[in-house]
UniProtKB/TrEMBL annotation:
The lineage of its organism: Eukaryota, Metazoa, Spiralia, Gnathifera, Rotifera. It comes from Rotaria magnacalcarata. One of its GO terms (molecular function) is serine-type endopeptidase inhibitor activity. This is Serpin domain-containing protein. Residues 10-141 form the Serpin domain. Belongs to the serpin family. It comes from the Eukaryota. One of its GO terms (cellular component) is extracellular space. Pfam families: Serpin.
Length: 142
């Protein structure tokens, strides 16, 4: 079941994209599998018992730590590091299984990729401090 940390997000993204395009009769679809995977990972990190087992199975990982590792890698790839823009663009396309089919970015230094994570909670709902710490440190979430 467990796959390498970055592969878990890539597999999830591929399956998600395939499912959504199939359900939309293969019309053009625009979505961010990385954003969806990160949001679901943030939810998974707060899950317990059977829900946690099912969500880990979706990502084909065996622990929350595996998801944290994937999240850290994705956050590094999409970080706004001006000195490494060219390699960041290349790393972002490496996350996609069919990236070789994508057109090359002619001037990678002119492209800025940013990924922002935020968790919204129902008013009055209490969140555990250890969960908030995990979101801040592993998912760079506010």
């Amino acid at each position: 079941m467990a796959v390498a940390s970055t592969e878990s997000f890539a597999h999830f993204g591929s399956k998600l994209f395939a499912t959504i395009t199939r359900e939309n009769n293969f019309q053009n679809v625009f979505l961010s599998p990385a954003s969806i995977a990160l949001a679901m990972s943030m939810c998974t990190a707060g899950a317990r018992h059977e829900t946690l087992k099912q969500m880990l199975k979706v990502f084909e990982v065996s622990s929350i730590k595996d998801l944290e590792n994937s999240a850290n890698h994705v956050m590094q790839v999409f970080s706004n590091n001006r000195e490494k823009k060219s390699s960041t663009i290349q790393s972002a396309t490496d996350l996609l299984p069919s990236a070789s089919d994508l057109p090359k970015v002619p001037n990678p230094s002119s492209v800025t990729l940013r990924l922002v994570n935020c968790l919204y909670v129902q008013k009055g709902f209490t969140i555990r401090d250890d969960y908030l710490d995990l979101l801040k440190h592993s998912f760079h979430s506010a």
